[in-house]
Write the structure tokens for this entry.
Amino acid sequence: MHALDNVIWKALTTRQTEFAEVVGQARRFVPEVTSLTAFSEPNAEGYASLAGLVGSGGTAAVFLDDPFIECEGWKAVGGAPLLEMVSENGISARVNPARSLPQITELGPQDSPDMVKLAALTRPGPFGSRTHELGTYLGIRSEGKLVAMAGERLKIPGYTEVSAVCTHPEHTGKGHAQVLMMELMRRIRSRGETPFLHVREDNLRAVQIYERLGFRVRVLLHYVLLRRD
């Protein structure tokens, strides 16, 4: 097994237990933090625990190794194939030294409304009012407006996920995402950890950017939003 297998479950049973809500063999993050949910195994016991966790009509955002197969009491109401990418070798893109770099700001609780607003506009993935509590979040502002951000989400021993990478549509093409990611990756590596991320398989532009930053595909996962009928 790879350290990143069943990564949501591992995060909620190791470095991020303080954010976990637990029923049997299922765990989820506090909803205000993120909607990500996991079970120890996608078997009958796992789905029964998941049902107890979310309740009737509740939803669970899970990562599965294989496409979801319809099972009694559950319906897939959203999702997409995801690439899990890892930057193992420490090689990343270089910024042109002649280029003027934007000022990077460390984001905190006071920035949460702006972060939620930007995430709602750009839809980088599940993002809540307390997502910023998961780790370091960095942003770039223009005339006081948050126009780009990136941060840390899932954490397991030896690995930290780069997540919520997004740029306001009016400010794309300026390299903001690359600058933020490179700084996050530098900080992650300074702690002796390896950066990884998740991206939709069909987001080819983002995949190309991440490859230039030294990320390589480890595995194809299936993000599924399940609803308990």
Remarks:
- The chain has a mean pLDDT of 94.
- The CA atoms of residues 140 and 148 lie 5 Å apart.
- The first strand starts at residue 20 and ends at 23.
- The chain has two domains: 7-82+224-228, 85-220.
